[in-house]
Write a structure and sequence with these properties.
Blueprint: H1 2-18, H2 24-35, H3 39-50, H4 52-86, H5 98-106, H6 108-137, H7 146-157, H8 170-194, H9 208-221, H10 228-233, H11 244-267, H12 285-317, H13 325-345, H14 351-376, H15 380-384, H16 396-434
InterPro entries: AA_transpt_TM
Transmembrane segments: 56-78, 115-137, 149-167, 174-197, 209-232, 244-267, 289-313, 333-350, 356-376, 397-421
Subcellular location: Membrane
Length: 465
């Protein structure tokens, strides 16, 4: 019995080390790892649309805006949970989600709007990861077309139904960040060593459509906090989350700025027709290793985006508090099917990011949190009794409400308005050019073998007159 006890203790320690995470460090790894997945490969494409200066400025700008709205979401979560716990509500077997926070603080209409935007964004976020898997593996093995690879990776990603919750992403988040770090610095160093291609041109920005499409892709890059509430709920002390997203964004900028700048410097306008940065870098062992790492990371990010959808579906069919993981996994499988289907219909790696960013991310992670924070604390009583007060150096409530108003106006006009217009034009152009269910999006045309020369024997004879 003593040896059994020691084995059990060892198993518990290993499980806690690799599996059960709830610290502030785990949350930081989750945020940083989830923020840059396949979008790391599309940022050089955005730079070719925006130009170098605008690309850098938009990254810094939307990084700040995204950190602020993540802070707002954390404040609203703590407020909601504190109120519920005062009412003796137990969340032991229940994962709090964003739409429930909106419901508890502002009512069912806010809940319905938040649920619709959040679920649609997470659905297409999962679709994008699946498209990225097929796009990346093609650069290692082009014996199969990208659509066939989508079928294969759709089946692989379906195994995420067995991951119980965000408590269980500790080792995956850590490894995921190492993978994106390697890939970012590979892109940077490989581009510098490659040097500029002959006759390189850096003509961006040239068209408003391209400019706002690129800007909206960067808005999407720093709008990856649709899973913020779930990450917070997995923490042992959610109150510590307030500045975690900001620190994660600072680290992410050390990856995205050098890599996007270096690739754009090396290849310039060629990126306008190559939305995946891997397409232009020469094949090598280092590139293949980066591709493999990104494939694994996209599997992790697929799980990140899909897990909140699994929770919503479980709650809808009454399976969320079921103790059997096998039953919950079986119940989750229908969620994967529409993701699989949409990835096959719209395999437009790159342009789909901008479309999702303008139409969904703009509301899900920028406009709705800013408005929700303002409406939740609009009364003096709510502000006096708030669990968390806004930072003093930003002007307390007046400063917070001013920033919220700016975000709502800016993102609605620039992100949703101009960005939506540009992204939809670009998206429709992809459909017109490649068609739906395209077999191999942006693949090089097959090399046609030239036919053997036709011999005409009678032409070789000299006819006398």
């Amino acid at each position: 019995m003593e040896s059994e006890g020691k084995a059990s203790d060892m198993k518990s320690k290993l499980s806690n080390m690799f599996w059960h995470g709830g610290s502030a460090y785990d949350a930081w790894f989750s945020c940083a790892s989830n923020q840059v997945a396949q979008v790391l490969l599309t940022l050089p494409y955005s730079f070719s649309q925006l130009g170098m200066l605008s690309g850098i400025l938009f990254q810094l700008f939307y990084g700040l805006l995204g950190s602020w709205t993540a802070y707002l979401i954390s404040i609203l979560y703590v407020e909601y949970r504190t109120r519920k716990e005062r009412e003796k509500v137990n969340f032991r077997n229940h994962v709090i989600q964003w739409f429930e926070v909106l419901d508890g603080l502002l009512g069912k209409h806010w809940r319905n709007v938040g649920l619709a935007f959040n679920c649609t964004f997470l659905l297409f976020g999962s679709v994008i990861q699946l498209i990225a898997c097929a796009s990346n593996i093609y650069y290692i093995n082009d014996n199969l077309d990208k659509r066939t690879w989508t079928y294969i990776f759709g089946a692989c990603c379906a195994t995420t139904v067995f991951i119980p919750s965000f408590h269980n992403y500790r080792i995956w988040s850590f490894l995921g960040l190492l993978m994106t770090t390697y890939t970012a610095w590979y892109l940077t160093i490989a581009s510098i060593l490659h040097g500029q291609v002959e006759g390189v041109k850096h003509s961006g920005p040239t068209k408003l459509v391209l400019y706002f499409t690129g800007a909206t892709n960067i808005l999407y890059t720093f709008g990856g906090h649709a899973v913020t509430v779930e990450i917070m709920h997995a923490m042992w002390k959610p109150q510590k989350f307030k500045s975690i997203y900001l620190f994660a964004t600072v680290y992410v900028l050390t990856l995205t700025l050098p890599s996007a700048s270096a690739v754009y410097w090396a290849f310039g306008d060629l990126l306008l027709n190559h939305s995946n940065a891997f397409a232009l870098l020469p094949k090598s062992l280092y590139r293949d290793f980066a591709v493999v790492l990104m494939l694994i990371h996209q599997f992790i990010t697929f799980g990140f985006a899909c897990t909140p959808l699994y929770f919503v579906w479980e709650k809808l069919i009454g399976m969320h508090e079921c103790r059997s993981m096998c039953k919950r996994a079986a119940a989750r499988l229908p969620v994967v099917i529409p993701i699989w289907f949409l990835a096959i219909v719209f395999p437009f790696f790159g342009p789909i990011n901008s479309t999702v960013g303008s139409l969904l991310v703009s509301f899900t992670v920028y406009i709705i949190p800013a408005l929700a924070h303002t409406f939740t604390f609009r009364s003096s009583a709510a502000r006096e009794n708030a669990v968390e007060q806004p930072p003093k150096f930003l002007g307390r409530w007046t400063g917070a409400f001013t920033i919220n108003a700016f975000i709502v106006v800016w993102v609605f006009i620039v992100g949703f308005g101009f960005g939506g217009w540009a992204s939809m034009i670009n998206f429709v152009h992809q459909i017109d050019t490649f068609g739906l269910f395209t077999k191999c999006y942006q693949c090089p045309p097959p090399v046609m073998a030239s036919p053997p020369p036709i011999s005409h024997p009678h032409l070789n004879h000299t006819h006398g007159l």
